Amino acid sequence: METSAQGISRQRLVITILVLLATMAHLAWEFFHGGVITHHILQRRDLPGISNWWGLLVLPALTWFLLGRIQRRIALSSTPPGRPSPTLLSRAVLIGAAGGLLFGALLSTAFVLRQQDLAFYVLVSIVLLAILLPIYRAECVLGFVLAMTFVFGALLPTMIATILAAVSALLHRVVYPRVMLVWHAVANSGSR
Fold it and tell me: Which of 56, 66, 98, 147 could form a disulfide with 142 if both were Cys (CB 3.0 to 4.6 A apart)?
């Protein structure tokens, strides 16, 4: 009988292999349709470029790492008796991944359509969401990166997602808990 941990490990492996296969298919398509794209910093050819070939290394490694973070979070969470154990494909994880995919796709589409204003508003809305929601979670980051990879390659979305996730984690794990401590201390001192 397969345990929950074994099932999650199998899901992690299968999803990582699927990402690798999708990356290989994307690069093969590029290779046979004019060559693998190189993205130049600030879209200036006189600045260094980053080849989409990096996706073969970055995307499977990032997927494996982030799915491991989700697996660890699931293992540390307590499941009430009688309820099924969560998996990598649980509703909460899928909602976070779908949110990341949605915003990554919106940002990519705005860029491709040369709608700089829309791209700016999408990016600002992601920053605002980082303040309100824990978008630092691995499934949000993975969805965002995967959605943007076709347009921007693997490295640029990974860097953007890392910065956004760091801001969100700093707020949700450091700033907000300290603000709540101060809030409760002030509220308790006033009731004495």
Answer: 66
